[in-house]
From TrEMBL:
Lineage, uppermost ranks: Bacteria, Bacillati, Actinomycetota, Actinomycetes, Kitasatosporales
GO MF term set: hydrolase activity
Entry coiled-coil feature ranges: none
Originating organism: Streptomyces griseoflavus Tu4000
Family stated for the protein in its record: Belongs to the peptidase S33 family.
Protein name: Secreted hydrolase
Length: 357
């Protein structure tokens, strides 16, 4: 886990994007990839519903499956656009990525607007969301997982002892093998950060832009850094929120999630302590921490509403990313402490979907 900027801080950085004069889109430079221009239309119903009430446009952009053979097989990437609100102030495009890896960004522009994206950005930039290659509506791969499969997102449940660690390692091995067995068309080897960065540049060209600005969260920072490194002459203004560095997907990177939780937990503890009269989790940060350990220990012995100690720790972890999630987290803790199984069941049904770090 990386320490996310507060949303206000992130928006303040984004506001910097809105400074300065307009940038006139220049003709495609020599050596530009031959990419057909985007033809905007309606978004798929599920994307439109997620973005509502903001209205987005959607399109597809064809890119090479294998950039070693740019004229070979092509795949279609689905992209979205929220056009700049003030054409007279328009500076260019701002591509968006929510992280994951594998998070859909088609409706991300609408989410940012709903959370207060400043007009200095929305007036001057077309906000471009997308499903990156291999996910959602962009040549998705499938490992054949089902809802009954014991596979996790990128953050596995808490492993309390060596036996649990070994069991989780076996699950990871099985998941990798199942993906390999289902990779009939050889798509997996083309799902790389470098190829996705190349896709961004194809999208830029298809939009008719000389340069692109970029906002990425978590894993999206690795993608943004890759793009800026590979195409420095085409990178305009780049905002990297919650930078993962270069170790995110290796063993050392995964270990840093625990450090991130330890560093971030005090923020929630102070928040909850100031609201003890509402949630009853403790009047001091130390008491809030004690409540956490008490709940986790009790759930280790006797799960409530389908939540055991391992899942409780994971839910807590996943809700420390943003302060806007603190109230839901505090309500869950409160229900557990008070033995309110009905409330805990309702909250867990909503929160079990937040396993992705």
């Amino acid at each position: 886990m990386k320490r996310h900027l507060s949303f206000g801080q992130s928006l303040a950085l984004l506001a910097v994007l809105g400074l300065g004069g307009s940038l006139t889109t220049a003709p495609a430079a020599a050596g530009e990839p031959k990419t057909p221009r985007v033809e905007w239309g309606q978004c798929p119903e599920d994307v439109a519903a997620e973005a509502a009430p903001t209205e987005l446009q959607c399109a597809t952009v064809a890119v090479p499956l294998d950039y070693a053979e740019p004229e070979g097989e092509q795949i279609d990437l689905t992209v979205s656009r929220l056009a700049a609100a003030d054409p007279d102030k328009r500076r260019g495009v701002l591509m968006l990525n929510p992280g994951g890896p594998g998070g859909s960004g088609l409706a991300l522009s609408a989410l940012l607007v709903a959370q207060g994206l400043p007009s200095s950005v929305t007036d001057r930039y077309d906000l471009i969301g997308m499903d990156t290659r291999g996910i959602g509506r962009s040549a998705p791969v499938s490992c054949g997982f089902t809802t009954d499969s014991p596979y996790y997102a990128n953050i596995p449940p808490y492993a309390g002892d060596d036996t649990a660690v070994i069991a989780q390692a076996k699950v990871a091995e099985q998941a990798a093998q199942q993906c390999a067995d289902n990779d009939d068309d050889g798509m997996l080897r083309h799902l790389t950060t470098a190829n996705t960065a190349r896709d961004l540049d194809r999208i830029r060209a298809a939009l008719g832009e000389e340069k692109t600005s970029y906002l990425g969260y978590s894993y999206g920072t690795a993608l943004g850094a890759a793009y800026a490194s590979m195409f420095p002459e085409r990178a305009d203004r780049i905002v990297l929120d919650s930078n993962i560095g270069d170790t995110h997907l290796d063993r050392d990177g995964m270990r840093r999630y625990a450090l991130g939780m330890e560093q971030t937990f005090p923020d929630f503890a102070r928040w909850a302590a100031r609201r003890h009269d509402s949630y009853g989790l403790g009047r001091t940060p130390e008491q809030v921490r004690a409540s956490y350990l008490t709940i986790a220990g009790a759930l280790d012995d006797a799960p409530v509403a389908g939540i055991d100690g391992s899942l409780f720790r994971l839910l807590t972890f996943s809700h420390l990313f943003k302060q806007t999630q603190y109230p839901k987290l505090a309500q869950t803790w409160q229900a557990m402490l008070e033995g309110d199984e009905a409330a805990a069941r309702g909250l867990s049904a909503v929160q079990k979907g937040t396993r992705d770090g």
